């Protein structure tokens, strides 16, 4: 069995580029929402003519789509991910462009499908701008208070209902941008961490769970987490997700 130092050193040296969580295989598990985002997104991609994925990470999600539209683009703001996405998606003819997280470097009214999986934030006004009339925004997002048990452990009891990721806020923002919300679903899912290395890696990668997390800064709490898992078994938290689909009116007066 690995020691605390071995687990932490391994997690601290692992790359957290891209949006691939395969490093956690066998070390952590998370339930998936019943709606099947990847399948639903692929179905919409197969029907689209011009599509873009926002905040595409390293291009992992888009690379798994069996049939891409004739014109497909992707945006990403973090330079290491941007390079990975470009290399991964170029063979499939996908143009990958950088963005600043607020303004989309995309032509107005050009896209009949905009997708995004787990965006850090959603630029609703920009999405409405780039959508063609009748176009669709389809996204799975991290919901409110996701894995807040981890936040509590490292930061103390954290306020509930103040994450800004509540589905009703997304719905209101979509409507304010002039879009019609046609689907909104929520799910609470079990997440299980089998060793402290999995926790450290996850917190390095998903940076908003414990803001400012580093292995060095939180080594004492990580040691306490290791002792807890050794004594009581895996650490269990609960992630939240919501699915939102919004549509731009066919005409300005629709």
Automatic annotation (TrEMBL):
InterPro entries, alphabetically? 23S_rRNA_MeTrnsfrase_RlmA (IPR052939), Methyltransf_11 (IPR013216), SAM-dependent_MTases_sf (IPR029063)
Which keywords does UniProt give here?
Methyltransferase, Transferase
Q: Which Gene3D superfamilies match?
A: Vaccinia Virus protein VP39
What is an example of a GO molecular function annotated in this UniProt entry? Answer: S-adenosylmethionine-dependent methyltransferase activity
Any idea where the Methyltransferase type domain is? Answer: 53-138
Q: Which Pfam families match?
A: Methyltransf_11
Q: Which GO terms describe its biological process?
A: methylation
Top-level taxon in the UniProt lineage: Bacteria
The record ties this protein, via PANTHER family, to:
METHYLTRANSFERASE (PTHR43460), METHYLTRANSFERASE TYPE 11 DOMAIN-CONTAINING PROTEIN (PTHR43460:SF1)
Name of the protein: Methyltransferase type 11
Q: Which organism is it from?
A: Rugosimonospora africana
